[in-house]
Amino acid sequence: MSLHLEQTQPALILIDVQTAFNNVAYWGGNRNNPGAEQNIAGLLKHWRENELPLFHVKHNSIMPGSLLAITNPGNSFMEAAMPLDGESIITKNVNSAFIGTNLQQLLDEQHIKTVMIAGFTTEHCVSTTTRMAANLGYNTYVIADATVSFAKVGVNGENFSAEMVHAVSLATLKDEFATIITTEQAKKIVTI
User: Fold this and answer.
1) How many CB atoms lie within 10 A of CB 163?
2) CA–CA dist 81, 69 (Å, integer)
């Protein structure tokens, strides 16, 4: 599995790596992938060292009580994914990083055909952005160990663990919308 960087310039899209998600109780009581932030930091380092395109997506909730509201401290980026000066920050207020933003325009202007997606949460904004990326024609990857899910309560009161939510979310994306890979596989793909 290798790509010619001169032709593809794969972009890393980091979705909503914001401090609000440190409040596990607020989002469902448990989460998976405790090493996700470390993997995200490693991906960022690798992309920066290889001077590849990367996009930080930030959710600015329009719900005043949300931990992701712009007036809430939880809106800030986590230390592991702090953008550097000059790096693209895409702000959104819906699940998809493509709706109401210039992400597609920026990708197309840079002739980017391949995107690799990581961040929060697998079942919401990662999934929605992945589906749209695939529908827009991008060669799409989801980095499974650099994405995070939270536990959910089903429509009949069932309890679904974060690991189950994560696994099912990835299963619904696999093959039809994206290739599912690990952090180490992502680094190898973009190594010349």
Assistant:
1) 14
2) 18
CA 32, CA 10: separation in Å to the nearest integer?
A: 26
Helix (H, G, I), strand (E, B) or coil at 86: coil
Decide if pLDDT at 83 tops 60.
yes
Label residue 5 by pLDDT band (50, 70, 90).
very low
**The pTM is what?**
0.94
The class level of CATH for 5-189 reads alpha beta
By C-alpha distance, which of 56, 55, 52, 57 is closest to 8? 52
Quote the pLDDT of residue 2.
45
Q: What is the mean pLDDT of residues 22-50?
A: 96
Give me the sign of the Cα torsion angle 62, 63, 66, 69: positive
Tokens (6 digits) for 83: 């953008």
DSSP 61: B
Average pLDDT over residues 94-123: 97
Query: Can you read off the two tokens belonging to residue 177?
Result: 């919308």
In terms of phi and psi (left: phi > 0; alpha: psi -120 to 50; beta: otherwise), the region of 111 is left
Q: Where are the domains of the chain?
A: 5-189
161 φ/ψ sector (left φ>0, alpha ψ -120 to 50, else beta):
beta
